[in-house]
Automatic annotation (TrEMBL):
A GO BP entry: plasma membrane copper ion transport
GO cellular component, one term: membrane
Upper classification of the organism: Bacteria, Pseudomonadati, Bacteroidota, Chitinophagia, Chitinophagales
Keyword Zinc in annotation: no
Stretch forming the signal peptide: 1-22
Name by which UniProt lists this protein: Membrane fusion protein, cobalt-zinc-cadmium efflux system
Residue ranges constituting the CusB-like beta-barrel domain according to the UniProt record: 220-296
Family as reported in the entry's similarity comment: Belongs to the membrane fusion protein (MFP) (TC 8.A.1) family.
Amino acid sequence: MQKKVTTSFLSACLLIVTGAFFQSCKSQNENKQTEGKVKYVIPDSIRKTLVIDTVSVGKLENSLTLTGKVAFNDDHVVKLYPMVSGNIQDIKVMLGDYVQEGQVLAVIKSSEMAGFSNDLVNAETNLRVAKKNMDATQDMFTSGLASQKDLLAAQAAYEQAKSELSRINRVLKINGGNTQGEFIVKAPISGFIVEKFVTNNMAIRADNSTNLFTISDLKNVWVQANVYESNIELVHTGDPVNVTTLAYPNKVFKGKIDKIMNVLDPSNKVMKMRVVLPNEGYLLKPEMFASVTVTNSENKNSMYVPLRALIFDHSQYFVLVYHGEGNADIVPVQKLSAIGDKVYLTGGVKPGDRLIGSNALQIYDQLNN
């Protein structure tokens, strides 16, 4: 019996000693792991050139990028239609040419113009005859050989002949004033020939629905953008916009929304909006594709930081909050919107916090390691 008690006591002691040994080994391993994991401190070589940004507060701005194209400014476009029927004899301009107001664009040989010229000759002849008759009747009336009724009739005939000549001259002036049977097509404004639908020896009719030329000064142009139904509430008349094109990807054309059409196109279910842009140097050409970015402000404030301070990793945005002495922490944030190099965000930081704005990705990787 005493032997069994002794054996049990020894076994219990052995278990206690073994447990203490393993616990000691475990504590030593944990201490080694803790000692091996040292928090990254930004070295002096990086700290010397470190850029520090501050979390600021301002009006929350939204941006929306739309597709569109450059178009003529319809308020500065003139379409020229034939006033008479005839044959095109001499086209003096080509598509894309710049023309001055009053410059001859083409000559139309027209039987109608020849008829107007003949009417002018007849009217001038009739006026001369009526003048002679009136003068002769006046002399006869003075001598008592003609009645007052005859004199009044002669005077009325003269006035009618004068009125007819005036009418014919006005008709000729409206049609170019040429008396050689030709209609001279002239530019009513200065600008570019942006459309041309005629060739030499082409027969035209006065009732033709197709214009001969289209002239636009192109000093300013329209940019028409497509707004989808889900984005209608984000655009307003007067909102500032930035326009870029494929031809000039690094140049931004600034303007404002001039008009919103307020109806949806039934074919593609988009609403059209219009921006009027000055066109210095005639860089913008009609039918160019354009990217239109609309910005506007909301009636609430939000924190914002420079874009360079933001890091995106594993579907999450982060910033590095700097505490000084080379110490920084990784803080997750939620992005609200971005305007240029300004990013609006929420969560994780507070106004006045200092953020690392240079070498952020390198420091982020080191902190994670």
